[in-house]
């Protein structure tokens, strides 16, 4: 077997060549260099981490400052909204007061116009057609009666509250019974009662800001008093609807904020 030449100045660490002091020193130097290289990398990372930590601290401080400013701004906004609400309330009260003074000084018939359910959404009900039934007439007459009794007659306006009259009209409440679809006579009776209310209320002393004669008061005449037919009932119901809407509409509409 051939012998292997061994260079005593070089050690491989695999047993083929023995370690010597010189080779050990070289390996240690290489290892030290590697350690130093890693240490430098670690220092670099440590420095970067420290920089990031510093940036994070300043960022957190900036965020805290912004949050504090936001809280202050939200407080200011809440205060402004509260002031706006108070201002809107004050303006609303001023408008009511001006409407009242206008009604007194103009004078107007009513302080405000209020049609109630005869004009839902300020859209007047349409007249009954020729094909309306006795039940349709009764329903319409009962609605007109209800709006007069529950909405218009008791409506009072003051310097602090919207309303129609200077004083409620308790003298002209419609006391006739509701009409029924199976009784033409009940419709006729209610028609005449509503017509009497239109006239009497329009001229009721101390109720309106000015007398209503000529605008649904003493001049109103029902087309068929004492009606004895469905056709006449339809005509009466339509006439009473128009007279009621005309009277209810006499408000201080010349004001830009009038209802």
Task: Please explain how this structure is put together.
With 259 residues, this protein is mostly helical. The protein folds into 2 domains: 17-105; 106-248, no CATH class. The protein has helices spanning 21-105, 134-152, 184-202, 230-248. The longest helix is centred in the N-terminal third of the chain and has 85 residues, at 21-105. It starts with 20 loop residues before the first helix and ends in an 11-residue tail after the last helix.
The CA-CA distance between the termini, in Å, is: 124 Å
Derived structural class: mainly alpha
**Strand content range:** under 5%
Mean of residue pLDDT values:
80
Rg, alpha carbons: 48 Å
Topology of helices and strands:
Layout (H helix, E strand, L loop, with lengths): L20 H85 L28 H19 L31 H19 L27 H19 L11
Q: Which key features would you list for this structure?
A:
259 residues, mainly alpha, 4 helices
Give the structure's gist in a few sentences.
This protein starts with 20 loop residues before the first helix and ends in an 11-residue tail after the last helix. It is an all-alpha fold.
């Amino acid at each position: 077997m051939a012998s292997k030449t061994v260079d005593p100045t070089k050690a491989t660490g695999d047993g083929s060549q023995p370690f010597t002091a010189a080779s050990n020193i070289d390996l240690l130097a290489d290892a030290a260099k590697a350690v130093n290289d890693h240490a430098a990398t670690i220092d670099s990372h440590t420095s970067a981490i420290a920089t990031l930590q510093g940036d994070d601290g300043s960022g957190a401080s900036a965020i805290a400052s912004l949050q504090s400013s936001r809280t202050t701004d939200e407080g200011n906004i809440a205060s402004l909204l509260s002031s706006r609400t108070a201002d809107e309330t004050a303006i609303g009260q001023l408008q009511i007061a001006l409407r009242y003074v206008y009604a007194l000084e103009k004078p107007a018939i009513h302080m405000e116009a209020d049609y109630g359910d005869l004009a839902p959404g300020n859209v007047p009900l349409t007249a009954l057609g020729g094909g309306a039934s006795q039940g349709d007439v009764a329903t319409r007459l009962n609605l007109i009666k209800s709006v007069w009794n529950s909405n218009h007659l008791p409506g009072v306006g003051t310097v602090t509250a919207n309303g129609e009259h200077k004083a409620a009209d308790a003298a002209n409440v419609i006391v006739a019974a509701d009409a029924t679809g199976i009784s033409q006579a009940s419709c006729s009776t209610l028609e005449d009662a509503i017509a009497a209310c239109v006239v009497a209320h329009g001229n009721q002393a101390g109720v309106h800001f000015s007398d209503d004669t000529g605008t649904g008061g003493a001049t109103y005449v029902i087309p068929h008093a004492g009606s004895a037919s469905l056709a006449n009932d339809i005509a009466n119901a339509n006439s009473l609807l128009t007279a009621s809407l005309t009277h209810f509409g006499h408000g201080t509409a010349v004001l830009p904020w009038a209802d």
